[in-house]
Amino acid sequence: MSILGTRVVRTEDPRLLTKGGTYVDDMRLPGMARVTFVRSPVAHAMITGIDTSAALAAPGVVAALTAADLTDLGPPPPDDGSGGEVNETLPLPAGGPWTEPLFAVDRVRYVGEPVAMVITDDRYQGEDAAELVSVDYEPLPAVVGYDAALAGSTQLFPAAGTNVVVVGGAPADDSAFEGCEVVVERTFENQRLAPIPMEGRAAAATWEDGKLTAWVSTQNAQITRFVLAGVLGLDPGAIRVVAPDVGGGFGAKVALDRDAILVVWAAKHIGHALSWSETRSENLLGMTQGRAQRQTVKIGGSRDGRIQAYRLDIVQDAGAYPRMGGFLPFFTRLMATGAYDIPNVSAASTTVVTNATPIAAYRGAGRPEATAAIERAVDLFAAEIGKDPADVRRMNLIPDGKFPYQSPCGAVYDSGAYTGALDKVLAGAGYRELRAEQARRRERGDVLQLGIGVSSYVEITAADAAGGETAQLIVHDNGTATVYTGSSAHGQGHHTAWAMIVEAELGIEMAKVTVIHGDTDLIPLGTGTYGSRSLQLGGVAVHRTAVEVKEQARQLAADLLEASESDLELDTGSGTWQVRGDPASSKTWAEVASHAGDGGLTASVHHTAQPTFPFGSHVAVVEVDTETGKARLIRHVTVDDAGTVLNPVLFDGQRHGGIAQGVAQALYEEVAYDADGNPLTSTLVDYAAITAAELPSFELLTSETPADNPLGAKGIGEAGTIGSTPATQNAVIDAVSHLGVRHIDMPATPERVWAAINAARGTL
Amino acid sequence: MKVTVTVNGSQVEAEVPDRTLLVHFLREQAGLTATNVGCDTSSCGACTVLLDGQSVKSCTLLAAQADSRAVQTMEGLASSDDPDAMHPVQRAFRAEHGLQCGFCTPGMVMAAVSLLAENSSPTEDEVRAALEGNLCRCTGYHNIVRAVLAAAGENQSAQAGAAAASERQA
Hints:
The complex is a heterodimer of chains A (764) and B (170). Chain A is an alpha+beta fold and 764 residues long. Among the domains of chain A are: 290-461 and 611-761, Aldehyde oxidase/xanthine dehydrogenase, molybdopterin binding domain (Aldehyde Oxidoreductase, domain 4), CATH 3.30.365.10; 464-607, Aldehyde Oxidoreductase, domain 4 (2-Layer Sandwich). Helix content of chain A is 28%, strand content 24%. In chain A, the strands form 7 sheets. Chain A has a 7-stranded mixed sheet, with helices on both faces. A 5-stranded mixed sheet of chain A has the order 7-15-14-13-8. In chain A, strands 18-26-27-28 form a 4-stranded mixed sheet, sandwiched between helices. Chain B has 170 residues and is an alpha+beta fold. Chain B folds into 2 domains: 2-76, Ubiquitin-like (UB roll) (Roll); 83-169, [2Fe-2S]-binding domain (DNA polymerase, domain 1), CATH 1.10.150.120.
């Protein structure tokens, strides 16, 4: 029996559980000094002077650097001729008038923006010396929130002449709503979130003998090298980037932040080994954040529940520098209609800059926003026509016979069984009994009311599948194997999964398979891990190398056994080559690989593919205290179909983490600013990161609709987050809908729920 | 000032600035980097260690406060990374997939060890309440909770086995 599909515990864990991982802050380089950044304490200001002299005189200070020291960078990228137009389909930092500097030059645009750095022998000295760098700020009015940005009376980039970075999507055509019996319209906020990987951003670097080595806490070492080569003006061959153990990323370590670039630059500039690991307070100011959309939905249909038209208008807050800000609403629009067959759709977006931390990918990156909008809209529609939201979903889900499904938003959903997923989760949750219990509590007027929230979702994974992923497999003459992957692990369990793939195909047991990732000297080409792409691209690439190696080995074994290739078979149970019908004749992998000659037994693959579309349905059950407004998730039941499951242990682990982050958005987490752009959630005391005490154990049900690739796999990294947020939000609103409440923005804090209940009193 | 701490059974003596936090003493002076720093407000628990058997957040204590006392970190739980040599809590974290990126894990494991020392058969709610001060961003806590409950079960069956064995001897 193949090891694929079975529960295999991780090979990564014994090391992580006994010695602990080796994260960037654990690196000890000879002579290493520490970097501490001086960051802007104001949201928007002109810089009129920087004085580092007092810092330079402080104990332990090696250097104090500012924009004036950036004299040895590579040439800026050539003008792309766009005249400042932003290409909204590329997740790159915007150039032209929107360019993000490394150190702030003459203007700061958000609290936490790097202005200078001090380099000291130890980190405590760095904290002291950073306080001594004197920066003169001439404050400007802060642009906070969507309306201030759109009004444009204060502009972050005067050369651009506007705060609007890019506008995308079709202009609205509302004629489709004219024929609808029921139309509901509403504006929601999909609030700004902090990703909070437990390890923040970190980088260490040395410059020795013309070679730069950088250890970066990143989701993609190879892209990091590409960026560093461009910024520093170095040949990529002169740079080695290593991703050591990485303590979580969730999308926020996809891009290489200016802070990390500056650390690597400084190591070369002053010729000194350097290390930087940000504090959590810095992380909550400087690491890119996610979501931050204001969404206006309009949904129309018939009184019996058929949805006929849907419109989504988005304002995306990109924060102070437009990186992925243009790109994320592209995904939101692409997935706007979700899992439903809606004939008339329009989706449009406007991306603006504000004096806040830049926005980039965060677990789902544009797709959770789409699901949140449509799932809330469907519930509003169901409430308006007085039908059960699960019934309205079932009536409108894309039928199984329509796959591959060309969505009106431009996506081609590869495969799905949406109604089955919905029915399965409803049965698993005991939906009818839950509704009966809800009715009893309503009848009794209980203080603790029950809310049941449903969501059905589809999302796009490996959206950039055409870019592909690399793998190299070597079978050594001692019978062991090494996999070099361009994918990049930071908790997902790549090392376990890739070894399973090799064992399944070649019969070389997992314990003999070493998996290496994240070192550009060993793996110059690779793309990394984001967008739930790893298994379906990187994993399939490994599978393909194994198939290629097997074919090479067949020839070698035939030669060794003096048999014809067609008579040879690989016994994957024992990992030996045999002549069919003659088990006594056999050759081990060690023998076959030894026969391979100088080149060894190896294969390299760059696997490209098409995106895939995982789907599922979630049911969240909450209790809401109608006197205090406190909502508590008491059950969460899900069906998540991401194709064939390679390892249920890893698969469910991804779902668990995703669900928790999604629930966190619905109930607890929000990055907040005051009217002057001062962050109000810059520590973990103020930012309500979800804890074990606020969650139940999850109830996971299975569904496997294979994708069209050799592993049958779609992505599962983000699905939990995408499905759980709207299910939970809908559940809270459902709990108090009998009191007249139709909507509560996220996070559904006690204050908001209580206020919604009170506002609804008298409306019934 | 001079600080002497018994770390995982070995004496570590170092001259450090007065303001040195225990977590930095462990990471820099003792050279034990499993214990991580995940925040600066005592919120995340990544730095949890045992001080004279009690769980503490080592970013919230000065090294000086641990002078002449005993600290145990995750490195001190097992003699090797051989799964058979691991502490029951470590073994349970692996068996239940209670870790992903591994960054919160040293603190989480030590918090779990401390919990089980105080309450050898906790309920799920008690485990969740006890781990409220330890953040994990990867696992959704689901498998961490299962791991702690499994380790508690293993402890109990080990204790029951030992009790039965001593009864037989008697």
